[in-house]
TrEMBL record:
Alphabetical list of InterPro entries matching this protein: DUF2909
Keywords of the record: Membrane, Transmembrane, Transmembrane helix
Any Pfam family hit: DUF2909
Biological source species: Parazoarcus communis SWub3 = DSM 12120
Record-given protein name: Twin transmembrane helix small protein
Residue intervals passing through the bilayer: 6-25, 37-60
UniProt superkingdom: Bacteria
Length: 64
């Protein structure tokens, strides 16, 4: 489960970087920026749901 969470965090960061690059380099291409940000939001929501399911099923415990 730890690897999945780390993978999602990396993908979220890459999507955010892609949106920033698109915003700075291609100023007229708003659709690409919006798509990258939409993917980031989708990945963030999916990660949140996976974490909630992990806590509920016992795959993730509350301890550090």
């Amino acid at each position: 489960m730890r690897i999945v969470v780390i993978l999602f965090i990396v993908l979220i960061t890459l999507s955010l970087g892609s949106a920033l690059f698109s915003l700075l380099r291609r100023q007229g291409d708003r659709r690409r920026t919006a798509n990258a940000l939409a993917i980031r939001v989708g990945l963030s929501i999916t990660l949140f749901v996976l974490l909630m399911a992990g806590f509920a099923s016992g795959l993730i415990d509350g301890r550090l």
